[in-house]
């Protein structure tokens, strides 16, 4: 496959996440009212999706190490299309939650394989750069998702916004079926054996580099998820934005993320991974603290949230490619399992944050504090991880590999 095709495939697979979350967010308040559901129940359409997304990767990862990336992607994308059509025609909020969870299962196949594909084809440092390009594509997709979702929800209704996910999934399935070639050079025939699987997971969990970069990616995604889960209610119901105006705000947020991925590719050759991440950590902490202090001072305005969050998203464009590629870097022969574990931890953090946000938004329906305090909390954790764990363990090294009954063990 040509480098351009690889970046296209990565962009589409990684773009499943913003399409599945961002595109429906402008429609979420109207959807909640249409079903006569509670706000906490509406949050489940996002948290159930993300929990299923995280858990499913624990299955998809070993499956892809055993059978290859291509068959897992074909099955996963077909399932995604089916779940998206089911979501569109849901008769109740409970049904929608079930279909969204199934979407999360399918989405896990695509995003997990994207991270594993990068490790299949590239060494760790080059992997961070190619992941940054794929995440730039994700940013472009995210730019279009929220404004499109706002327009569809405003003029055609929220069900049409959900149907747009099926269209995107079908297009991605077509690209994978017609153009994607297998990237896993050597399949592990024992990858699904319980003993082998436990040994592989144990080896991954013992690796401090895996933890450093997984926590970096997890905390950075935690901040983004907090914004995604709370922003539609805060901007539309508290600050009075229309659905298209909210979509435009999300569009500008995605632009700052794209700029961050470009900055990442400029900084990596000059400073290396650890110093690049440390610089981005300072940007994150400044942004989160500014947003938090403005809200505590009683400033409830779109600009008081968005301007600091642009800084957060610039840094997010550095933390995600470095964190996602760094987490799988030490495991060339178990990239699927490492990708699955890293993704699972990211989604577990998002799930618990979603539960807290649902309660906080219900308790403070006229306040921006659940959003701003949540982003501030994650900003502190991101900076702490970037300045400590990544600095100490951020040198990605491929450990010695020992084969014992087909197991991959990293010392």
Helix and strand element order: HHHHHHHHHHHHHHEE
Beta-strand percent range = under 5%
> What is the helix fraction of residues, given as a range?
over 70%
Shape: globular
> What is the fold named in CATH at topology level?
Growth Hormone, Chain: A
Can you tell me the CATH superfamily?
MFS general substrate transporter like domains
Return Rg in Å.
Answer: 20 Å
Model regions low in confidence, pLDDT < 50 over at least 5 residues: 399-411
> What is the number of E strands?
2
Q: What is the CATH C level class, in words?
A: Mainly Alpha
Instruction: Tell me the number of helical segments per DSSP (H or I, 4 or more residues long).
Output: 14
Nearest-integer average pLDDT = 87
Supply the helix-strand structural class: mainly alpha
Q: How is the largest sheet built, in terms of strand order?
A: 1-2
Structural domain tally: 1
Distance between the termini: 33 Å
Q: Give a quick account of the main beta sheet: strands, pairing sense, barrel closure.
A: 2 strands, antiparallel
Describe the structure.
The chain has 411 residues and is mostly helical. It has a single domain (3-180, 188-397), classed as Growth Hormone, Chain: A (Up-down Bundle). Helices cover 82% and strands 2% of the residues. It has 14 helices and 2 strands. It has helices at 3-22, 28-35, 39-67, 69-88, 93-121, 124-155, 158-179, 194-205, 208-238, 243-296, 302-328, 335-363, 369-387, 389-393, and strands spanning 401-404, 407-410. It has a two-stranded antiparallel sheet with strand order 1-2. A hairpin with a 2-residue loop joins strand 1 and strand 2 (407-410). Helix 5 (93-121) packs antiparallel against helix 6 (124-155) and helix 9 packs antiparallel against helix 11 (302-328). The two termini are 33 Å apart.
């Amino acid at each position: 496959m040509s480098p351009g095709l690889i970046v296209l495939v990565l962009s589409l697979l990684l773009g499943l996440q913003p399409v599945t979350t961002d595109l429906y967010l402008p429609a979420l308040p109207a959807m909640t009212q249409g079903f006569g559901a509670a706000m906490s129940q509406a949050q489940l359409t996002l948290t159930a999706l993300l929990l299923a997304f995280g858990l499913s990767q624990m299955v998809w990862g070993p499956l892809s190490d055993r059978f290859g990336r291509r068959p897992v992607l074909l099955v996963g994308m077909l399932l995604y299309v089916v779940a998206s059509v089911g979501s569109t025609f849901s008769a109740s909020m409970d049904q929608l939650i079930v279909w969204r969870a199934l979407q999360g299962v399918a989405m896990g196949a695509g995003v997990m394989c994207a991270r594993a594909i990068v490790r299949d084809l590239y060494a760790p440092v080059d992997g961070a750069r190619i992941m940054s390009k794929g995440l730039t594509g994700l940013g472009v997709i995210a730019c279009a998702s929220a404004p499109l979702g706002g327009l569809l929800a405003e003029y055609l209704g929220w069900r049409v916004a959900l149907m747009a996910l099926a269209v995107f999934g079908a297009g991605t399935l077509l690209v994978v079926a017609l153009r994607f070639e297998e990237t896993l050079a050597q399949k592990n025939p024992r990858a699904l054996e319980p003993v082998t699987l436990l040994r592989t997971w144990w080896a991954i969990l013992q690796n401090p580099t895996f933890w450093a970069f997984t926590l970096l990616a997890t905390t950075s995604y935690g901040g983004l998820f907090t914004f995604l889960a709370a922003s539609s209610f805060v901007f539309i119901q508290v600050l009075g934005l229309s659905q298209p105006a909210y979509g435009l705000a999300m569009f500008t947020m995605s632009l700052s993320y794209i700029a961050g991925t470009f900055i990442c590719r400029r900084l990596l050759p000059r400073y290396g991974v650890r110093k690049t991440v440390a610089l981005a950590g300072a940007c994150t902490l400044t942004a989160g603290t500014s947003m938090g202090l403005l809200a505590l001072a009683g400033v409830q305005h779109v600009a008081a949230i968005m301007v600091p969050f642009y800084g957060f998203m610039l840094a997010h464009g550095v933390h995600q490619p470095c964190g996602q590629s760094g987490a799988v870097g030490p495991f060339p022969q178990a990239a699927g399992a490492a990708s699955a574990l890293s993704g699972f931890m990211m989604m577990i953090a998002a799930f618990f944050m979603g539960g807290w946000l649902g309660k906080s938004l219900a308790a403070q329906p006229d306040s921006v504090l659940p959003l701003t305090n949540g982003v501030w909390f994650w900003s502190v954790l991101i900076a702490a991880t970037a300045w400590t764990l990544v600095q100490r363990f951020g040198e990605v090294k491929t450990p010695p590999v020992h084969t014992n009954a087909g197991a991959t063990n990293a010392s």
